[in-house]
Specification:
The complex is a heterodimer of chains A (about 500) and B (about 250). Chain A has 15 helices and 20 strands. By secondary structure, chain A is of the alpha+beta class. Chain B is globular. Classes of the chains: A alpha+beta (about 500), B alpha/beta (about 250).
Chain lengths: ~500, ~250
């Protein structure tokens, strides 16, 4: 067993204002906690800390230090949501992920081979945390509790926090302060009074005495961290469908700025899709402008996709082409339809697959901006009626068509989607002048079975401007001439 | 002509290949086709080269063709005819655009992506911003693909960054006269005459349908079609198909 723990030191801040941290103007921000009449600072961002604001300081005192201080009350529900999202995102690496008080731990012994070892895996997790805009520190140990302790220690103290052998655990955990164990005040206080501040001090004491004085919890926690007592965990369950939202601390008018939180939601979605082994055909982005006004954008993809970058490109095309009506306050991203994802193997040489992928990506980019119906392929269809002898090919079916043998018959390169009635003078059809027949007739009479029968004689004809047209005469009903194509 | 810079796509017409630098449509590059008519063989000029076996795609090359045309155009490329030309329909996509900006954008995306062997863009506007044309030219270079830009004849008067500009004028016999306004290398002197369409009625001896001498109340064509009169072939090279007006007179 080998565990990686992810610790989020700024959880309460970041569950509120993730998008606002790096990219927004520097504004001091604190999260307040405690009773409503006397709130105190729970966490402060870098800008507030520079002004000398520290946790546990009364909010009134903090406001005295920074004039334009932004105070946001703490919302435990939101923090839980962030933790759940984190666990879902991490589930792409292993099925065994469990939530910690401010982070998550994941069992990776069985995934090491797939991801190429500890260092590449930790690198991927770090990169992912950056794309989710979460400040995180990692710890690696044979037990989840020890890994989480090491992750916390890595944030507060320097040094490499990794331990692969259970035998070394005792030594590696020795200098970790007891404050990091999240024990209640009434345990930590008497321990400190006795001069026991690090794990090392506690391990040197007789176990029976510790148990009698401080209850079972102290000894049990230590044993679990050291792997001497069982520590059963309930794995995090990945939800069935994806929906994520974020509130923006500031209204965004500029589309370029909006792509930053959108990119974060997309990488969150990518993690979810990887965890489920799925890909999305369609995603929906909802922009909330004020209490009543929302705009909804649906983005479709012809082949299932999961990469955040690809989706972002589609969203970018659309949102730069259609600017939004008002400033955006909040975003919501959801993936209503999921399909199984088929992994593609990579190859050295450019293969038809790579070519096809580039082509598909191009079509999607164009269709995303112009609309799905405006980009299509065409294919032949076995029907004698010329207007039904082709089909638009939007979904690109895999079945091969069996066209009719019309190879020897003249067929025009341009076909009018609707045959155009021609004026005739003395029975002779006119199209920019009198038409003279070059070849024909080719009689096509069919289609009685589906209510759209045709009875036509087709001719190749030329007008004085030397344009060669494909015309037909409806010989059954009104005996009129129609233009149906150009031999271009 | 001297050898071209990059790889070329043979046009399929030897007379034209001899005049174009490098012996074919320059790739990458922009070629302007200027003509006012529809149905004089302007598409066949391009399709013959794309469909011919001489231009077999090498492994790793882009194979796709993107066709950008205005949304309002009443006609679309006809699949059976394209198959007859040897075009693989699986590699073709049609993009219908509502404005000039959309058309330019779509064509640029297609060229830049490197996924297209060729992009065909039809623009009906007489004037197009030279900067947009320059962008297209650069996109074609970046994606190593061909742009065929079809424009009205008026555009011949305004300068263009395209490497090759060809004016098409129809001839009586169904043939097409190509005048190379601009090409890489020395300016071309004479124009070329080509029969681009593989219509049997254009290449074989003209056929004349003989009408009966006397006219009657039933139209001539009705009698041909109802079987009372049979069209007769006449093997005369000089006689062209007769127009209806003459037949009735």
């Amino acid at each position: 067993m080998l565990w990686i723990a992810v610790y989020l030191p700024e959880l309460s801040l970041q569950s509120h204002a993730r998008g606002a941290l790096g990219h927004m103007p520097q504004i001091p921000l604190v999260i307040s906690d405690g009773v409503a009449s006397r709130p105190h600072v729970h966490a402060a961002n870098a800008c507030a800390r520079e002004a000398g604001i520290t946790p546990l300081m009364p909010v009134a005192a903090a406001q005295a230090r920074a004039a334009q201080l932004l105070v946001v009350p703490r919302e435990p529900a939101k923090e839980q949501e962030t933790l759940q999202d984190l666990a879902t995102w991490l589930s792409q690496f292993t099925p065994m992920v469990c939530a910690e008080p401010a982070g998550a731990s994941l069992e990776i012994a069985s995934s090491l081979r797939l991801f190429g070892g500890i260092a590449p895996l930790a690198g991927r997790i770090r990169a992912g945390m950056r794309s989710l805009e979460l400040l995180a520190s990692l710890g690696i140990a044979p037990t989840p509790r020890a890994a989480y302790l090491l992750a916390r220690a890595a944030h507060y103290m320097s040094g490499i926090r990794m331990c692969r052998e259970p035998a070394q655990l005792r030594e590696r955990l020795a200098d970790i302060p007891l404050a990091l164990l999240d024990w209640p005040h009434e345990i930590v206080q008497p321990l400190a009074a006795l001069g026991l501040v690090r794990v090392r001090d506690l391990l040197a004491q007789p176990r029976a005495g510790l148990r009698r004085r401080f209850g079972d919890r102290v000894i049990d926690d230590l044993d679990r961290a050291l792997g001497q007592a069982p520590d059963p965990r309930v794995p995090h369950r990945v939800p069935e469908d994806f929906s994520a939202s974020t509130d923006l601390l500031f209204d965004i008018i500029d589309a370029e700025r909006l792509f930053i939180p959108v990119a974060r939601l997309l990488s969150q979605m990518e993690g979810f899709l990887r965890a489920r082994g799925a890909a999305a055909n369609e995603i929906v982005l909802e922009l909330k402008h004020n209490r009543t006004l929302k705009t909804r954008h649906a983005f479709g993809s012809r082949h299932p996709q999961r990469h955040a970058g690809e989706w972002l490109r589609l969203i970018r095309e659309r949102l730069t082409a259609q600017p939004f009506p008002e400033a955006v306050m909040a975003l919501k991203l959801s993936a209503p339809s999921l399909v199984a994802y088929q992994e593609q193997t990579e190859s050295w040489l450019p293969t038809p697959d790579v070519r096809q992928e580039k082509w598909q990506a191009l079509l999607e980019r164009v269709a995303s901006r112009l609309g799905n119906k405006r980009v299509f392929g065409i294919r032949e269809h076995s029907d004698h009626r010329p207007e039904y002898a082709w089909r638009p090919d939007i979904d690109r079916p895999k079945t091969a068509c069996t066209p009719l043998a019309t190879a020897d018959k003249p067929r025009p390169l341009w076909l009018l989607t609707e045959p155009r009635a021609l004026v005739s003078i003395d029975g002779a059809p006119q199209h920019h002048g009198a038409l003279s027949l070059l070849a024909g007739p080719e009689r096509i009479e069919t289609g009685w079975w589906d209510g759209r029968p045709v009875a036509r004689d087709y001719f190749v004809a030329k007008n004085p401007q030397q344009e060669i047209c494909w015309i037909f005469r409806d010989y059954r009903l009104e005996k009129k001439w129609y233009l149906h194509g150009y031999f271009s | 002509m001297a050898a071209g810079s990059g790889e070329e796509i043979h046009s399929g017409f030897d007379a034209l290949d001899r005049e174009l630098a490098g012996g074919g449509w320059a790739k990458p590059g922009v070629t302007e086709i200027l003509c006012n008519h529809t149905g004089i063989g302007e598409l066949s000029l391009l399709m013959k080269g794309l469909g011919s076996k001489a231009n077999a795609v090498r492994p790793g090359d882009a194979v796709h063709l993107m066709w950008v045309m205005p949304h309002t155009q009443a006609w679309i490329p006809y699949a059976p005819a394209l198959s007859q030309c040897g075009i693989d329909l699986r590699h073709l996509a049609i993009v219908r655009t509502q404005s000039t900006d959309e058309a330019l954008w779509a064509a640029e995306q297609g060229l830049k992506s490197g996924a297209c062997r060729a992009v065909l863009l039809r623009m009906n506007e007489a004037w197009v911003n030279p900067l947009s044309l320059r962008r297209l030219q650069q996109a074609a270079m970046a994606g190593n693909s061909i742009l065929w830009l079809m424009r009205p004849l008026v555009a011949a008067q305004s300068p263009s960054p395209a490497g090759t500009r060809i004016v098409l004028t129809p001839q009586d016999s169904g043939a097409l006269t190509l005048e190379l306004l601009k090409r890489r290398g020395l300016p071309a002197g004479k124009s070329i005459r080509l029969v681009t369409r593989s219509l049997a009625c254009l290449t074989r001896e003209p056929r004349v349908v003989r009408a009966p001498a006397k006219t009657s109340s039933i139209g001539w064509l009705d009698r041909v079609l109802s079987g009372t009169v049979f069209p007769v072939e006449e093997k005369s090279a000089n006689v062209r198909a007769r127009s209806f007006t003459r037949e009735r007179g």
